[in-house]
Amino acid sequence: MTPMNWNLKKSNVLLLIIFVYSNCFAQKNTISKLNFYATIGTVFNGSINSTTSNKIVKGTQTFSAYQDSIADKETWRLNFSPQIGIIYQLNKNINLQCGLAYLVLGHQRKLNDLKYLDATFPGIGSGLGNGLIIDNTNVERNINLNYRYHYLHVPVLLNYNLEFKGLSPNIKVSLSGGVGFNVLLKHDINAVLSKGFKIDEKSSFSLDSTGYTANVLTTNVMLGTLVDYNYSKNIKFVFQPMLGFFPFSVSNKDLEARPWFVNLNLGLIYTLDLLNK
Questions:
Q1: Do residues 104 and 62 touch, judged by C-beta distance below 8 A?
Q2: Partner residues linked to 84 by β-bridges
Q3: How confident is the model at residue 58 (pLDDT cuts 50, 70, 90)?
Q4: What is the CATH number of the domain that holds 232?
Q5: Is there a contact between 100 and 82 (Cβ–Cβ < 8 Å)?
Q6: Are 59 and 74 in contact (CB under 8 A)?
Q7: Which residues face 262 on adjacent strands?
Q8: pLDDT per position as a tens digit, 66-123
Q9: Of 12 and 26, which is predicted with more confidence?
Q10: Helix (H) or strand (E) holding 152
Q11: Which helix (H) or strand (E) holds 63?
């Protein structure tokens, strides 16, 4: 074998090795980085409640008239939502986020300046006073009725990286959007009485039914941002504000409810770098 042929063979072998190595490396780069995250969210939430039903409620008025009469007494609520999940890097600019959260949504209805024999809500009080104010005193009497839908919430989001000039390389900002799938765990009313006001020596009541027949399965849409700060090789701090809305009613047609929420998620991301494994 001549030296030239041997050199050509060595060159071919070297080219083959480089080709195989480059392909393997390219395949490795297609293996997305896997991230685990845990957050706690501060959730401002309310509900758009409406009805067109002419059915009689409370024996004297229709559902429509009843809803109109209490619309100005309905307001938002505040609670917290823990969440865990994974973020899977699809390519350089897009990742898929899927989580699992406990989410409580609903609205608050305020009953202020209650007087003797005013109606409250069935289940507040017992005996002849069930649902009525029977204590004729000068104490200020207010009740906050917290209508609550308890969900097992599964958010599925796509996060698209936004490039900002002059931004620190440790900070990444993404546009987030997607849907949430929700399984109803329970729905109830938490009635909280104002300070110094008690019924049956109680300052709060937990009622099993909201008066809205809640659907077991619901969906919502979400839009927000994902901001992460690269603290170390495997740990990032994350802030993810999200706006959510239920386009379809979560209850029956007699009293329709479409919850909305603003969820300010704060937590950590742990990156599992598959390229180093």
A1: no
A2: 38, 100
A3: low
A4: 2.40.160.20
A5: no
A6: no
A7: 44, 243
A8: 777 778 889 999 999 999 999 999 998 999 999 999 999 999 999 999 888 888 888 8
A9: 12
A10: strand 143-162
A11: helix 63-70
The pLDDT value recorded for residue 22 is 39
Average pLDDT of the chain is 84
Same domain, 211 and 271: yes
- Indicate the helix (H) or strand (E) that contains 26: helix 3-29
Q: Collect all residues with Cβ–Cβ distance below 8 Å to 166 and sequence separation of at least 6.
A: none
Q: Tell me, yes or no, if the pTM score tops 0.70.
A: yes
pLDDT tens-digit map of 221-275: 999 999 999 999 889 999 999 999 999 999 977 889 999 999 999 999 998 865 4
Residues 5 and 110 in one domain: no
CB atoms near residue 205 (< 10 Å):
19
Q: Which residue has the tokens 């599925």?
A: 156
Closest CA to 103 of 83, 77, 123, 130: 83
Q: Are residues 41 and 112 in the same domain?
A: yes
Say if residue 72 is in the same domain as residue 202: yes
Q: Which of 185, 169, 265, 174 is nearest to 218 (CA)?
A: 185
CA–CA distance, 102 with 218 (Å, rounded to integer): 14
Domain membership of residue 20 as a residue range: 1-30
**Judgement on whether residues 125 and 179 belong to the same structural domain of the protein:** yes
Domain count, the chain: 2
